Each structure stands twice: as structure tokens, then as C-alpha cells.
Amino acid sequence: MATSNNRSEKNRQWTTQRVFFLFVLSALLGNVLIVTFHSSDSFEGSSIKYHHQLRHQQFTETRSYPSVRSSKPSSSSLGNNIKHALPTIPKSHSTLNDTLASALEKKKKGDNKGEEEEKNNVFSICLITKDDLDILPEWIAYHYHAMELRHLVVAVDPSSKQSPTSIFDNFRSTLPDLIIEEWADEYYLPEFFLNKSYGMVPNFITEGGKNGTFQQWIDEKHIRPVIQKDFVIFNNHYYRQLRFVSQCTKHLLKHNRTYMSPLDSDEYIVINPLLNITTQQKDHQEQPSPETWSQLRPNSVMRFLEDRIQQRPQLMETGCLKMPRLLFGSVPDPSPDQIPNPDSKFNLSKFESLQWLYHAPWQDERNHMQKVILDITKIPKNDTELLGDYAFSVHQPSMTLCPPESYIGELNDTMRHPLVGNHYLGSWERYNTRQDKRRSSKFYKQRKDVKFGKESGWLTQWLDRFVEDVGMEKASRVLESYLV
Q: Cys-Cys link to 207, which of 161, 211, 301, 417 (CB 3.0-4.6 A)?
């Protein structure tokens, strides 16, 4: 224990020194301090790794949130150039779609009560999306099929150049049992943020959102106006993300949902590949492989999870299941045995989950930190993160429920981690499409050539199974951009 504490203290000191050094260097050169975040597409570089460790140490007492009345940004530090750094989502994005409104109205009237109660245990996802229209339909269709995704809450990044509404409308009209909500800023962000008083946002640059506001950090460090914009973009991104997770969680609780995950559109929930479910085993507890799972039948991954929880209740005892991630690079594989249904009406080269088959080693740090699946019915009322102003992190939404964030995936511990999040890097063209300073060619090159292992063929079944389940007409409608 002493060794661990000493290591954590050294990490904390190292992080503080590094952040301060980069800050001073940036101020001297007059450049924007972006190098700290260039090593990842989601602010998850090495410096952020230690930032998370520092936050874990700092959050040992109840968090105090900034008050709109008691904390006002000074006009000297956050001028108009920063105040309008981030555009707001167009008003056209609906806050509550007609499908949900209709369902809730039926519930109030007592219509189909048994059916409504039966559907409360379906899977829900809280998603922030930005200009990923080319991969979004595949991602939704897969989780609709494999995870019984029936409630999707989406916040569109305000810097997006394209709206996903037409894609969502397509799914709503074709698969009416899937509820998709699009949230505008007004639905989940506080008034001070909507008024662009970004100085009042908690400071996530160095304090993990705990001590003081962003404005106080700007004033204390005397950040020059020329470099403030990039700092405010980072800080606002972090707050928007964590605020959305907490508000989405509370929203799903109001609608009696059970399982949910704060997932990204390049992440796919799958059964841990080391369980080798395609091979029949005598010991059902150790290697479950009923036909519905091995053949990726409808809702098979969700049913698999429920079966595992029934066998080992401790998996979801706290209400948070840790889900290691597995990085898939951009090495193509034309092997005929891996191409599902070559006579398909779909252009299979457009599917992320079907064309990128090679992944990183199980314990590779490039897999990055875990994601989680939450049983939100187990969130205690005194949880100050998920039920408070903002979550602790997207990798550990609640310190009360979830195990600490870790970089090593632990995929080989199949008893504790029956599910894995496949994380697809994608092609350079798609990766570089987003005009995002956090994304770099260096980061991409470090990850694109991973070729430790190859997808077994289990996941590539999903498209054929989806077509069998909903029919070609509906599948073609929701996946129209993938047709040959």
C-alpha cells in the first residue's frame, strides 16, 4: 500500500511539473498549448492518464459545484473572443422526439402497461456525436441487434458541421420500438453555460473540476488571451461530456430504464473474445456457448450479459460493470473466409466492424481505459457524480459504483470482464475528416498497424443476422448509405 501511495504521489508531482512546464513554454513561445492533448482523439493522452490518477486522489470528499450567483467571470480574462468560442446546437434539434412523447402518454393513460414494464429492462446508450454520419447507422444497427438497444439519447457536438437528424428519423420510422432522442444544449446544460459565461465552468485543466472555476485558473496563471481559446475549448468539452452523462443518467432513471452505457460511435460492445463462445464446452459456467450467442442472434450479447450476472451476481453487485477496450487498427484483410456473404446487397467495405479485423495485444496500453455498463437502478441517492452536476469521468462515471480507471485492459480476466468494447480507429481519411486539433497523424500512426490478433468471425455475422431479423427491406432502409 505504501509503495502504491508513493507511486501515486510521484505521478501527481510529475503531472503538476509537466503541465506547468508546458504552460510556461507555451507562454514564452506564444503558441497554443495543444501538445498535451495531441496524443489522443479524446483528450486521453499520457498527460491525461496521470490527470485521471490525480483526480482519483483529489475526489476524497464531497465535490462543491460552482454557483451561478457566487462566481462571476471577469470581463478582463474571458473577452468576446472566448465568450463565443463554441457555437450552440441549432434549435431544430428536438429535445424529446415524438416516439418517446407518445410512449409516455400511453403510460400515463395506462395503455399497454404490461408491455411497457417489460421493455424497461432494455439497453440504453448516452452518446455525444460529432460528424460521424458515415459510421453512425452501422453502430446503431449493430447495438439494436446485439444489445437490444431500444433507447438512445444523443447530444450533438456544437462544432458539428452535419446534423444526424435524418439518420435518426430513418431509424424511428423503420424501427418504431427504438426511441431516439436528440438533445439541444438547453436540455442538459446550465444557464450560465448557455449564456456563454465559460469562466464559471469548473476547472478541468488541472483540478479535475473540483477546486475552483476555469476563470479562477485563467486569472491565477495569467493565461494570455491569444491562447485562451484552446484552453476554453478543452475545458468546455470536458464539462459538456461529463454533464451530459449525469443528466442523461437521471433522465433514463425517470423512465425506469435499467442498463445503460456512455458509449462512443466507434465502440462496439461484444462478448469477450477470449471466452471463445464459438467452441462448445462442457462447463457451462466457464465457457457458455448456446446457439443464440455463438451465432449472434437478436439481443444475444444482452442475453449473455444477463446470464453471466445471474450466474455471478457480484459482477453487477455495485451497479457498474467494467468493460475493457480492444483497439482495432486499419490493416485491411481480404481473406475470403472473413468476408460475410459476398453476395450481399451492401458494400461491406463501408462497415467498420466488417473490414477492420486486426487488433492490438490484450494488455497493450493503446487499448486505453475501460468503458462501463451501469445498472442505474443501483445508484445510491447520495451519489454526487451521476446524480449531481456532472459525472466523474466517461470511464468511471461514479466513484461510488465503478472501479478505478485503468489503462491495462485486463481482457484475460474473463470472469470479471465478460464483455469488451471493440474500439475502431478507422481509415486515415475518416479519422482526419473531423477538424479537431486533438487528432494528429502521429497518434494515428502509433495505432494503425496493430496486428496482434484477428477477429474470429463471430462479430462479422451480425449484418446477416440483422437482415434475417428485421428483413431486407427494413435493413436496406436504415443502412441505405451502405448499399451497393
A: 211
Please state, in angstroms and rounded to a whole number, the distance separating the CA atoms of residues 40 and 360: 16
**Residue (of 417, 411, 412, 422) closest to 459 by Cα position:** 422
Q: How many whole angstroms separate alpha carbon 441 and alpha carbon 425?
A: 12
In this structure, is the dihedral angle defined by the CA atoms of residues 20, 77, 212 and 374, taken in order, positive or negative? negative
Is the separation of the CB atoms in 125 and 168 below 8 Å?
A: no
Angstrom distance (rounded) from CA 180 to CA 168: 7
Identify whether residues 252 and 285 lie together within a single domain.
Answer: no
Name every residue whose Cβ is closer than 8 Å to that of residue 471 and which is 6 or more positions away in sequence: none
Structural domain containing residue 415 = 266-370+406-484
Kindly state whether residue 440 falls inside one of the protein's structural domains.
yes
Q: Are residues 337 and 437 in the same domain?
A: yes
Q: Which H or E run includes 294? A: helix 291-294
Same domain, yes or no: 347 and 455: yes
The Cβ of residue 7 has, within 10 Å, a number of other Cβ atoms equal to: 11
Mark which of 262, 277, 298 sits at the end of a domain.
Answer: 262
- By C-alpha distance, which of 238, 294, 260, 255 is closest to 126? 260
Are residues 54 and 131 located together in one domain of the fold?
A: no
Same domain, 228 and 258: yes
Query: Per the structure, how many domains does the chain have?
Result: 3
Q: Which residues pair with 270 in a beta bridge?
A: 420
Q: Are residues 36 and 96 in the same domain?
A: no
- In this structure, the dihedral spanned by the alpha carbons of residues 371, 332, 37 and 387, taken in order and rounded to 10 degrees, is -20
**pLDDT by residue for the chain (484 residues), tens digit each?**
444 444 444 443 334 334 333 433 343 333 333 333 333 333 333 333 333 434 444 333 333 323 222 233 333 334 333 443 333 333 333 333 344 444 434 433 444 444 444 456 789 999 999 999 999 999 999 999 999 999 999 999 888 889 999 999 999 999 999 999 999 999 999 999 999 999 999 998 886 666 789 999 898 888 888 888 889 988 999 999 999 999 999 999 999 999 999 999 999 999 999 986 544 333 434 444 566 688 899 999 999 999 999 999 999 999 999 999 999 999 988 665 555 566 679 999 999 999 999 999 988 989 988 999 999 999 999 999 999 999 999 999 998 898 787 766 577 888 899 999 999 999 988 887 766 666 778 888 889 999 999 998 899 999 999 999 999 999 999 999 999 8
Last residue of a domain, one of 197, 231, 262: 262
Do 410 and 401 form a contact (C-beta atoms < 8 A)? no
Q: Are residues 256 and 272 in the same domain?
A: no
DSSP letter for 39, please: T
Give the Cα separation of 436 and 434 in Å (integer). 5
E strands in 342-418: 358-359, 371-375
